[in-house]
Amino acid sequence: MATVPAGAAECFQHSVHDMDVDSGCFGAGSGTQLNYGLGFLEREFGSELMSLNAVSELLEKVKTETVSVEEQVLTECSSVPPKISASLSAAVEVRCSLENVLQREQCVSSELQQHLQGTRLLMDELGQTFNHVDSMEKSMKYLKCLHYIGELSASVQQFLMTNSVWEAIKAVESMAALDSGLNQSGCSHLLDFLRKTLCFWHNIIKEQLSSDFENALTQLHWPIVSTTSPSATPPAGQEVSSHVEELVTQLLALQTSDDLISQRASASGQGPSSSPLQAPPLCLPIQIMLQPLKKRFRYHFCGNRQTNSLSKPEWYLTQVLIWMRNSSPFLMEKIQPALDRAGVTISAQVELCRGLMSLVQEKVASDASRMLYDDVLFCHLVEEVLQFEKELRTNYSYPAVLPGLLHILLEDAVLQKWLSVEKKMAVEKMDAMLSAEGAWTSQYKDISDMDELNAPECAEIFMTLLQVITERYQALPSPAAQLKFLELQRELVDDFRIRLTQVMKEESRFPLGARYCAILNAVNYISTILRDWGDNVFFLQLQQAIVSLGEQEVLGGLGMMEMGRLASLEGSLFDGLLSLLDRLKGEMLGRLLDFLMRDIVEKARLYCQERWLSVPPQQDQSTMSLSSSACPMMLCVRDRLSGLHQSLSRPLFHLAWQGLADRLDKFLYRDVILSNHFSDGGAAQLQFDMSRNLFPLFGHHCRRPENFFKHVKEACIILCLSVGSAVLLKSVLKQSDQDKDWDGPKDSPPESTLNELGVYCLSPCDVLILLNLRASLPEI
């Protein structure tokens, strides 16, 4: 390797230093530059810092990089200025265009302002002219309308002077039409003049026609108030009938203006106020016909006459029904044909009923508010109103869409009073019926097959009370009000159930007593009736009303599942009460059966201790007799069944004897059969006691009583098998028990063998136990 002389190396170092200073690559005058240079030399030469060849290579490399960098700098400097110049030129052009546009906008704006200032005065002058024209046009119309009203008024006067009633009515109808057309007008003075003119001429024509119509009705002996011959109408000449028909037609033509005037008077507070339930106004002929009836009604029932008595609402209610009935033939023969020929769809009978109903509604509303503090008078009024409403809808074909009297009973104060009185009266009746002498005896006890429910008198009276309440509120037009009465009925049923429970606890010491059985019959009777009500159309409608109205509080805050069951008709309104009554019935029936079994078990004690092993075999079963130790038990069962049959209703007795049979079957199987060993004679005697004596006691109530003693019947079959059959059966059962763990092919199951013998209830293990109780079988 060639070695660089010391002088050359020093010269190279100075050259590098000068290059760094001139090029500025490392930053002039900085210690960092020196460090960078030294580090660069160290990386490039390492230990060969003094090598000449390395210096030559480095110098060439630096020159090449310098030339490349200079070319890049020159290229960039030559390409940037044209682009920047083009951008600046475009910006200058846009700025000039924008300045031109702004100058044009200022010019146009100044010209527009000058034009507007020039036309403003013209617009003001035109506006004043137009307003003057409008005012003149309105004045002309006002004067024309005023002149038209004067012409109509003059024509009405002229027509009345010439007795041209039809023409006068047409002119009045034109006034009424003009009044309706000007209803939204702000000309208050013109409207007031028109309405006063209309009212003036209308009243004159109405008074004239009313007077003529009243005279004609008088000739026909109206009103017909006599009750001697309500169906007979007095004969009338053809002239009178034709005159009545003409007057009816003219009054109907005057109806529009009359309704308009009545509405104006009602709105201004001068006429009778209209209620939300008020129907359209009555037709004028019927209004005139009602005047004498109204006078009679107010004279007798709204003054100081003795007939105006709070305690006798039936007087005016009956009188109104009599007027309706007596007037019907007259209306159908004299008035209805005229209405039909006039082309109006009005029923004279219905219109008269509507007019009379307005009198009755006013009277009932007044009396009801005065009776809120007298329960007796209030109850009587409600009864009479309900009866009146029923007869009105049934016998007089009064439309259901028209209001009757029931809406008066739905007012808050009256409805709450009604509910409180119903509850108070019902509780008093419950107290009286439960304390009555014959409360716990059936009304039909001396009549055989008359009442299979065998309900005591108190239960029948209570359910009749609920039925009467239902009939009272069933006709109400409001489902919400009906639901309130339903809740009251539910409260009464629950109250009566609690009372029955209290009496039952007092009688529970001797469940076979007549009163205990009567309480059980009452519970069953009430639950049966409530189940029937659950399928009744009326209560199904109430059920849907609860779902639609969301009245969950009526049923004690039902959850979504219960509401869903009601909506799908899977449940009923009385499910909660029925569950409580069924639980009470189950508890009472269980207590009764427990008492019976204690009595029977006491009587069967000797029979349980019978020595069945020592009973000799009997060759002839016809010579066998009942075991002497079984006689007390059999007599007890017979007497108790007979007593229950007389005391309990048929459905309850059916449940009772079946429950007794089930408990007796288990008792005999456990305490008589499984607790003893049997000889062949003992098994035969047991079967004789059961099949010929016990089972027939229940045979009066079913065809095959042995099916209710399955354990005893099947045990007797096993105990009475012949020795060979018993041994074979025992071996089969044991072999089957040993083959349970065997995986190979098995014989038929032992149950099939038992079924062939008539054994279905006992298991193979039970049969083995019974076979082991037979003393005559050898050990296997």
Automatic annotation (TrEMBL):
One BP term from GO? regulation of ER to Golgi vesicle-mediated transport
A Gene Ontology CC term for this entry? Answer: Dsl1/NZR complex
Task: Give the PROSITE patterns listed for this entry.
Answer: RINT1_TIP20
Domain of life according to the entry: Eukaryota
Family from the record: Belongs to the RINT1 family.
Q: Which PANTHER family match?
A: RAD50-INTERACTING PROTEIN 1, RAD50-INTERACTING PROTEIN 1 RINT-1
- Protein name stated in the entry: RAD50-interacting protein 1
